[in-house]
Amino acid sequence: MQRLSKAGRIKVESYDPQGPQQFNLVRALIFAATRLDLYCRLGGVMLWRMVMKGWRARLGFLIPPGNPTVEPELIAMTPPGVSIHFSRLVARGPAGTHQGQEERNRSQIEHIDQSAELLAMVKPDVIMVGHTATSYTLGRGAEAELLQRLHARYAIPFATAFGSVAAALQALGAKRVALGTPYSPEVTLRGKAHLEAHGFEVVSYRSLDNVADIYNETPERAYQLGRLVDTPTAQAVFLSGTGMPTISILDALEQDLGKPAVSANSAMMWHALRLAGLRQCVSGYGRLLATASNP
Question: Average pLDDT, stretch 154-182?
């Protein structure tokens, strides 16, 4: 090895590859190269995953124009590797009120293709109609016809929030259901009739009292509704309405009632994941989502 002496002359020293300093340097270089290679490999995978949104599945949701609840609740339940995408349905007038709800429902049905066409451009694996009361307006036959038409037009599986609830209740083995809603008594009765048309027995039903705006309701009020509507004969409690915040209280409600509690939003995420071919369990939102297989 060459070194510069104090006199400015080059001094030649012997190089011992087995010396402790050289050995440590070689080991350090090998270690650094290995870590760099690993970092590049993992970094490439992570970068690909960051760029490739929804590398496991993409889920699409058509939601009412004024609903501020459904997006954060669905995002909270989304497992890793799954991306969710939204398009607003078309309806005019005040949002979240009992007055005018039927007109808004019909407007959303009439203009659904405007919203579905835009959402289909994301190429989701499934598209959910994220509004339970729309199914109550349609009725069982018209709901099935709408889903078939949308599937044929866009070549994407379509389902509804209510259809997700029906599938969830069947998976839970619940035939006798207690129904709680934030709707008017008239719309709640339509929800009861829709459940019965799908073969469920509604042993109890109740509308939330004093609702001025569904979208201003609280999880605490949803929890109290679940407690009030439950009866000993009910095998499950269903809280209807994607605009009423529910997912944060489902675990506590199930523990206190000793039976499954399903909301429109928890059922939509569960059903959408399964339609996309995923068996991912998501804890913290009731037993429906807590197991990878059907509960």
Answer: 98
